[in-house]
Amino acid sequence: MDAAAELSQESGFVAESGAAKMQERLQKRHQARIEDAERRKEDKERQAVAEEKGEYFSSTFNGERACIEELLSGCSGADRAVVTQILEEATAQTVQLQKFLNDSTLFLTQYELRQAQAALQKLQTSLAETREAALPKKRFAFRARTKAADKVAPPVSDTASPGAGTFEQSAQVDGAAAFEQCGFSNMENELLTKTSDEIQKRDVLLTHLTNCKVRLFGSPSTLHLKHIDSCEILCGPVSSSVFVDHCRNSILALPCQQLRTHNTTNTQVYLHVTSRAIIEDCHGVSFAPFSWSYPNLEDDFSVSGLDRDRNNWSQVDDFNWLAAGTPSPNWTVIPEADRKTNWDS
């Protein structure tokens, strides 16, 4: 083959190779365009689903709230029996509305969540005010029990100021307890226990406790912790919400449907929560999965209605931290090596 032929053949190879590379680049570019179009389509569909869920939540939540408000308006001028029935129905519907909100937190924006929580709190306040106005409490008394004998002491006068210790509050309406709450208040350096029979499905309040160990067995309806300092508080499954306010240097272990924590510092929370945990005006708060156990824990989970297999302990919303994509500096996850495992000491 002469030089001209060789050159022509080589040029043909080069041209063919260049065409193949060009074709490959075009195919890659076309594939990239297809993938990009698919991503945009998926993003658009996800956005549409999120908006649809948000619209459904908003219309359903506002509709249920309006129904409850209409119910409460029917208390005006009604006789006692009718008012009692209305308030029972309104209370049940409010509980269901709270559950609906808890179940919807995964797809709500923080703004939507705040607005709904504020509306629900306003509704709960209106319910309490309506009950107070329509069914004034006939009796309110603190009953102190001795820690050693655990016996009920005679009721003190309504104007007496309760001292430190165990307390139970009750209000009698038509012979039935309309409001019941139990707990501990104003105590230091004590080991405090409530049995399952004492707290089952009741509201529990712990307030102004310092350097105490508290064991709450059973399934409370709600749990309120206020002004807690250097305490270890272990609680059975709470069927609705746990509210923590002004807690510091403490260890908490609790399962619940919702956790709301305010003004809390340097506190560890061993948590089982079926919606999401919310913190506000907090710093130095750390989380780990709930690990306390006692003989009847599974029975108490059944009583509470909480989903044993659903735990969002590490999904924490900080209402003081709105920087998207950047973790809040106000809370952390407790490293596995540092987590408490022995609760008997």
Structural description of this entry:
The chain is an alpha/beta fold. It has two domains: 136 residues, Methane Monooxygenase Hydroxylase, Chain G, domain 1 (Up-down Bundle); 199 residues, Pectate Lyase C-like (3 Solenoid). Helices cover 39% and strands 28% of the residues. The strands form two sheets. Strands 1-2-3-5-7-9-11-13-15 form a nine-stranded mixed sheet, with no helix packed on it. A seven-stranded parallel sheet has the order 4-6-8-10-12-14-16. A hairpin with a 2-residue loop joins strand 2 and strand 3. The longest helix has 71 residues.
Overall spatial form: extended
Count all strands and give the number: 16
What's the CATH architecture of the largest domain? 3 Solenoid
Reported for the largest beta sheet, the result is: 9 strands, mixed
Terminal CA distance reads 95 Å
User: What fraction of the residues are assigned to beta strands by DSSP?
Assistant: 25-35%
Count of helix runs: 5
CATH class of the largest domain: Mainly Beta
User: Would you tell me the structural class of the helices and strands?
Assistant: alpha/beta
The whole-number mean of residue pLDDT values reads 79
Rg estimate, integer Å: 30 Å
As for the number of domains, it is 2
Low-confidence stretches are 138-162, 170-180
Provide the succession of SSEs.
Answer: HHHEEEEHEEEEEEEEEEHEE
What would the CATH topology of the largest domain be? Pectate Lyase C-like
Fraction of residues in helix: 25-40%
Identify the strand order in the major beta sheet: 1-2-3-5-7-9-11-13-15
Family: Belongs to the TBCC family.
GO biological process, one term: tubulin complex assembly
InterPro entries: C-CAP_CF_C-like, CAP/MinC_C, CARP_motif, TBCC, TBCC_N, TBCC_N_sf, Tubulin-bd_cofactor_C_dom
Domain C-CAP/cofactor C-like: 154-321
